[in-house]
Design a protein that fits this description.
Number of strands: 13
Distance between the termini: 29 Å
Strand content: 35-45%
Shape: globular
Structural class: alpha+beta
Order of helices and strands: HHEHEEEEEEEEEHEEE
């Protein structure tokens, strides 16, 4: 679970509650922290159903009173396609982070909320199916005239799988990520906003991979937001 932001003893503000309502309005999934790149204003709609990889138990075909199934082992999450291209360290520059949020803000037009990121982001995809995501260090949320400043320090780790042209995060551990939110310099509880803003852009996304460029397309409501990363 995410670490509790410092000075979160303050009651959740009406502005924060409103912002969470905006998130729920645009989020097609009701799963906490299931969403996109640094914003999870939208949890991503599933790209396609992942095939089962666990072998089916087999029993004796003879008239044995109680056939004994062959023991099976639960497979560990791991990529299954385009491994050579996907594995590695990927960097999202300030321009690419801003472009992603521009997509999100376009979708949010008319909602009274706007998000502005500062900083870069990094994604490491490993051959064993694990990943590390370091989000942009700061996101400013302007909600109905009030500014919420959300700062991040640290990284999220987890596991992922690949199916066809889809990539999805299976598990995530946010214990290594510190989140501090303020309004006018005073600590506040950012609630679901802080959790969703920090998640990696590989939650059920479609991807395109070239030797030096990884493109992740996340479905947001009836639109999409694109993350472009370059190999380090």
């Amino acid at each position: 679970m995410p670490q509790t932001p410092r000075s979160t003893k303050a009651r959740k503000s009406r502005v924060t509650a409103y912002a969470e309502g905006v998130i729920r309005r645009f989020s097609p999934l009701a799963v906490v922290t299931a969403a996109v790149l640094a914003l999870g204003l939208s949890a991503c709609a599933p790209v396609e159903e992942k095939p089962a990889t666990q072998p089916t138990p087999t029993g004796s075909a003879s008239a044995t009173p109680t056939p004994t199934p062959t023991p099976t082992a639960t497979p560990s999450p791991s990529p299954t396609a385009d491994l050579a291209c996907l594995v590695g360290a990927w960097h999202m520059g300030q321009d690419q982070v801003t472009a992603f949020y521009n997509d999100v803000n376009s979708l949010m037009a008319g909602s009274g909320a706007k998000f502005t990121p500062v900083g870069t982001a990094d994604l490491i995809l490993r051959k064993d199916g694990t990943y590390t995501w370091t989000p942009a260090e700061q996101v400013t949320a302007n909600v109905s005239g009030t500014t919420i400043l959300i700062n991040f320090k640290g990284s999220i780790t987890g596991t992922y799988t690949v199916t066809g042209n889809g990539i999805g995060s299976q598990t995530q551990d946010t214990s290594g990520l510190e989140i501090v939110a303020t309004i006018d310099g005073k600590g506040t509880d950012a609630g679901a906003i802080s959790q969703q803003i920090s998640v990696a852009p590989i939650s059920d996304a479609k991807y395109g991979c070239k030797p030096d460029t990884l493109t992740l397309i996340n479905k947001l409501s009836d639109s999409t937001a694109t993350s472009v990363l370059h190999r380090e």
